[in-house]
């Protein structure tokens, strides 16, 4: 698996350190507010697990599964809800947890949805931001790492459902995805 990675951009140690920093920030921001932390499956799973264990105040965890990429390397532009929340959003302080913002389509869809459902507040925490990929105007409130517009995998990020279990964030060798898409 590791030999399919061209370059490691963020190491496991850097991720863990960043999770501690963000966890502390969220603790201060949400203390006493009992936020509804919403993980966007599947990509957000490792980050959500690591960052929320560093938040030292009560919170509720829920999950939404959406997909816009299918099996390919490019967004289809269409966001599909695969699993909706169990919790009611009305009146809640919603904290969306994402692994990455690229085009921004997934998050702008979710922010609009939670506002429509009358959240008291909606904030976004993302481990990675790829600002060059943006096609809609949206910004995260908390960003772990800003990275260049390369095809990233690992720590939740997949290519064709693989590499999510890598402990770091890396760049996939182009021959791995061109083999299947050319
Ligand atoms: C990926 C990633 C983000 C989204 C970001 O999810 O996890 O949720 O794309 O891209 P965008 O800003 O261009 O919308 P994907 O749809 O691949 O589903 P997954 O999390 O199950 O991999
Ligand atoms: Mn995702
Ligand atoms: Mg994906």
UniProtKB/TrEMBL annotation:
<keyword id="KW-0479">Metal-binding</keyword>
<dbReference type="GO" id="GO:0016757">
    <property type="term" value="F:glycosyltransferase activity"/>
</dbReference>
<dbReference type="InterPro" id="IPR000836">
    <property type="entry name" value="PRTase_dom"/>
</dbReference>
<dbReference type="InterPro" id="IPR050408">
    <property type="entry name" value="HGPRT"/>
</dbReference>
<keyword id="KW-0460">Magnesium</keyword>
<keyword id="KW-0660">Purine salvage</keyword>
<protein>
    <recommendedName>
        <fullName>Hypoxanthine phosphoribosyltransferase</fullName>
        <ecNumber>2.4.2.8</ecNumber>
    </recommendedName>
</protein>
<keyword id="KW-0808">Transferase</keyword>
<comment type="pathway">
    <text>Purine metabolism; IMP biosynthesis via salvage pathway; IMP from hypoxanthine: step 1/1.</text>
</comment>
<keyword id="KW-0963">Cytoplasm</keyword>
<keyword id="KW-0547">Nucleotide-binding</keyword>
<dbReference type="Pfam" id="PF00156">
    <property type="entry name" value="Pribosyltran"/>
</dbReference>
<dbReference type="InterPro" id="IPR029057">
    <property type="entry name" value="PRTase-like"/>
</dbReference>
<dbReference type="InterPro" id="IPR005904">
    <property type="entry name" value="Hxn_phspho_trans"/>
</dbReference>
<feature type="domain" description="Phosphoribosyltransferase">
    <location>
        <begin position="13"/>
        <end position="159"/>
    </location>
</feature>
<keyword id="KW-0328">Glycosyltransferase</keyword>
<comment type="similarity">
    <text>Belongs to the purine/pyrimidine phosphoribosyltransferase family.</text>
</comment>
<comment type="pathway">
    <text>Purine metabolism; GMP biosynthesis via salvage pathway; GMP from guanine: step 1/1.</text>
</comment>
<comment type="function">
    <text>Purine salvage pathway enzyme that catalyzes the transfer of the ribosyl-5-phosphate group from 5-phospho-alpha-D-ribose 1-diphosphate (PRPP) to the N9 position of the 6-oxopurines hypoxanthine and guanine to form the corresponding ribonucleotides IMP (inosine 5'-monophosphate) and GMP (guanosine 5'-monophosphate), with the release of PPi.</text>
</comment>
């Amino acid at each position: 698996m590791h030999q399919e990675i061209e370059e490691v951009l963020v190491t496991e140690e850097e991720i863990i350190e960043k999770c501690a920093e963000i966890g502390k920030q969220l603790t201060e921001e949400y203390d006493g507010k009992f936020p509804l932390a919403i993980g966007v499956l599947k990509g957000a799973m490792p980050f959500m697990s690591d960052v929320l264990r560093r938040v030292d105040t009560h919170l509720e965890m829920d999950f939404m599964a959406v997909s816009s990429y299918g099996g390919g390397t490019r967004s289809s532009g269409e966001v599909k809800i695969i699993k909706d929340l169990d919790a009611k959003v009305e009146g809640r302080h919603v904290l969306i947890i994402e692994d990455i913002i690229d085009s921004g389509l997934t998050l702008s869809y979710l922010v609009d949805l939670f506002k429509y459902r009358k959240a008291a507040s909606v904030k976004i925490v993302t481990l990675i931001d790829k600002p060059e990929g943006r096609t809609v105007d949206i910004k995260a409130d908390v960003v772990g790492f800003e990275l260049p517009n390369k095809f990233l995998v690992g720590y939740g990020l997949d290519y064709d459902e693989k590499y999510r279990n890598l402990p770091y964030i890396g760049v996939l060798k182009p021959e791995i995805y061109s083999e299947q898409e050319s």
